[in-house]
Design brief:
This protein has one domain. The protein is built from eight helices and eight strands.
Length: 206
């Protein structure tokens, strides 16, 4: 199973009367559906970072836009000296950076904090249609300048274009809450528990 999981969960949501992203209750419903896959394990569900970056059809893009959500396979330039890294980031690009992009990767936050950050970010969308024209109106300066976004600090990473190993996979705004909790992270060099503990320490500093 790959990106088709979005269609399946969205179809289930529509039948249940849950309009994506429009209300806090709807957002939670879609997050719960994705978390059921986590509890079953990525192998059991067929959902993983690897499967999400294969056979993506018209979702594949070469040039990311600020404020859209993407996932991809990444091979860091300095991976031998990094304490750990996520091989399949899930990001909102927030700024262009030397040789690539600066993005916030939600995988670095434990699920509870991930949801809190996303809820705060929903106030910065360009519109409330949650379609292909919707983007997050965010930048590093905006995020760093507001206390309600403080959870973003451990998530900011610099991704070099020539170390991205797949096409970027576009995540539609109606799918953001699903993608947020799918079991697609793959940390190399540390367990997710170690990553989450480090991230909590960083958020507490501010």
């Amino acid at each position: 199973m790959s990106v088709k999981i979005f269609d399946e969960i969205l179809a289930k949501g529509i039948r249940a009367g849950q309009v994506p992203a429009r209300t806090a209750a709807a957002r939670q419903w879609y997050r719960d559906q994705a978390q059921k896959l986590v509890k079953g394990g990525s192998t059991a569900s067929g959902v993983s970072g690897e499967s999400m970056t294969r056979s993506v059809g018209n979702r594949a893009v070469s040039n990311p836009l600020i404020g859209n959500m993407y996932t991809f396979k990444y091979d860091p330039k300095h991976k031998d000296t990094l304490p750990y890294y996520d091989m399949y980031p899930l990001i909102f690009p927030i700024n262009k950076a030397k040789g690539g992009i600066l993005g916030i990767n939600f995988h670095y936050l434990p699920p509870t904090l991930r949801a809190q950050l996303m809820d705060a970010l929903y106030g910065a969308t360009s519109n409330k249609d949650y379609d292909e024209n919707t983007r997050m109106r965010i930048s590093y300066n905006i995020l760093n300048g507001a206390s309600k976004y403080r959870l973003f600090r451990p998530t900011v990473k610099h991704y070099l274009t020539n170390h991205i190993r797949t096409r970027l996979v576009y995540i539609n705004p109606s799918e953001w809450d699903i993608a947020l909790f799918l079991p697609t992270a793959r940390f190399v060099g540390a367990t997710k528990q170690k990553v989450y503990a480090d991230s909590r320490k960083i958020t507490l500093r501010g």
